[in-house]
Amino acid sequence: MSGLFITLEGVDGAGKSSHLDWLADWFRSRGRGVRQTREPGGTPLGERLREIVLHEAMHPDTEALVMFAARREHIEQVIRPALAAGEVVISDRFTDASFAYQCGGRGLQEARLEALEAWVQGDLQPDLTLLFDVPTEVAAARLANAREPDKFERERGEFHARVRAAYLRRATAHPQRIRVIDGSRTPEQVREQLLEILESLA
Length: 202
Ligand code: TYD
Hints:
This protein is 54% helix and 14% strand. It is of the alpha/beta class. Strands 2-3-1-4-5 form a five-stranded parallel beta sheet, sandwiched between helices. The radius of gyration is 16 Å and the shape is globular. Bound molecules: thymidine-5'-diphosphate (TYD). Residues 12, 17, 39-40, 54, 67, 92-93, 97-98, 101-102, 150, 152 line the site of thymidine-5'-diphosphate (TYD).
């Protein structure tokens, strides 16, 4: 069986993480090996870089470079081997997050990231990206009740509005790969939409 690479994306507070385990179970119940992972992170070195990049102030270029450095390790050590073994890799965020946060949010030029993407990924792209989309106010209200915010979660409303807009532009540019999920619906309704998408994969 060939590997399948699925990524979950969305602004902070869009609700993607609450569906991760369910998605993994869905594939396991169909006999697939599943590798659940996340970015930034996913490897011991990547997790150390995550601590730094989520909590320390740095130049936007540095931030983008650290994200891609962690990604390089992640691809080498986790993603490619798991795909080669025929597993389903489900990653909580991947490169669309860099385009949304570092380009949309921080204002870096997309051409810069495209160069890094080509360098670090070669021809590797997710087979499917689930973009959890919610209005910025809904996301902000959810985050207000969450645990201690990280560097990105502490950014102002306009930052998150730009991140959301950048994600939606990517969905329009890659309609085959990126499927937009309405994250403001109830968890049950979201699951129905996810099921439809998963069943259409077969
Ligand atoms: P997130 O995945 O939302 O983890 P948690 O649910 O524990 O908060 O947090 C990761 C943060 O990193 C998120 O705010 C988006 C940001 N990020 C980038 O800015 N660029 C990237 O390339 C990636 C992968 C994440």
